[in-house]
Amino acid sequence: MIEFEIPKPIAKQKYLLQTVAEEMMRPHSRYFDEHEHEIPWDYINFMHQALQAVGAGSLAPAPTEGEEKKEEVEKKKYPPIGYQSLTFMLETLSWGDVGIYLVTPGGGLGAAAVEATGTPEQKKKFLARFRQEKPAFGAMAMTESHCGSDTSAIRTTAVLDPETNEWVINGEKIFVTGGKISLQDSDGLVVVWATIDPQAGRAGMRPFVVEAGTPGVKVTKLEHKLGIRASDTASIVLQDARVPFENLLGSPEIPKKETKGFKGAMATFDATRPLVAATGIGVARATMELLKELLAQQGVTIRYGLPRQKLTSVERDVIDMEVQLESAWLLVIKAVWMADNRKPNPLEASMSKVRAGDVVTKITQKALEIMGPVGYTRDHLLEKWFRDAKITDIYEGTGQINRLVVARNLLGYRGKELR
Length: 419
Known about the structure:
7 strands, Butyryl-CoA Dehydrogenase, subunit A, domain 3, 14 helices, Butyryl-Coa Dehydrogenase, subunit A, domain 1
């Protein structure tokens, strides 16, 4: 039987996070939008302490002795909820402010890459830094100036120095979300994708953990962006950057038919694309709530339950927007449920990303249209959310690329057969 009840541990977490979003994020949205690249340390330090106090990845309060048995019952009643819990967390924080959410301390996409491709020993070693006393951040560096969506065409190289048993990495990465805060403003790390054998194509791709303070690694540029302006987007140059042999995630071996390196990159996206979609859902939900509030102030209420022909144009628009939002959210929940239950989800992950990217863009745009000059001005956050929304359709695989992934999975084509 399908159940739509939110598991109690997640409900507790969501209640606490909603308070954080309302009190520590939303009031500062405009400031950090106007002061791009200024780091919201008050939020970061609070969240770091909160996450450390209750265990990374959860903000649910620790159970009392009397609640322990109830918690055991909950564990038996509900399936694994790790990714689902994280999804509700991201959606709620993005409702507060998606740019500020993107500087929440933790491993981020870098940790996701470690989880997807690292050995148990590597996971234990590299993820431990995100549980230390000071906040740390993780990022992933994939995109290069000559290849955006075609991640298999990367040219950054990693060559093993047999004398020192170190990997020497050379190349340049662009559009690295959180690159500066991971490498310069914290004791974090960036997972850099490079090729150990350019002749091997995709099979030569490997992820390397590049830690903050590594000589030869330099942040060369910060992008000035349309939205999510509290989060830095950096260019990183690696010039003879040396990392230990064990910083290569997974195996350095390249059997003739091996494509594990590229598959590791895709496995990372399968885990994180629904999470990115959830951030867009948060922005769309914030937009819908404010839109209905502003309409109510003008005496416009939505009369649910009436035939469409008896509704006004605005009422039909709002109801359609709500339907779109709910459908996108259900796709996200399905994708993360599959991830929690260790079910392959490349199709569902890409579907959720495509749908959320479309929906948040359309909802924020339609909200501006409905409110007219009021929406276009800076009196409210509608125009900011419109600017924040578009990135959902771009990073971690553009809408076009994810549509290709969906088509390939539905039709049974390989990448080289359907481009």
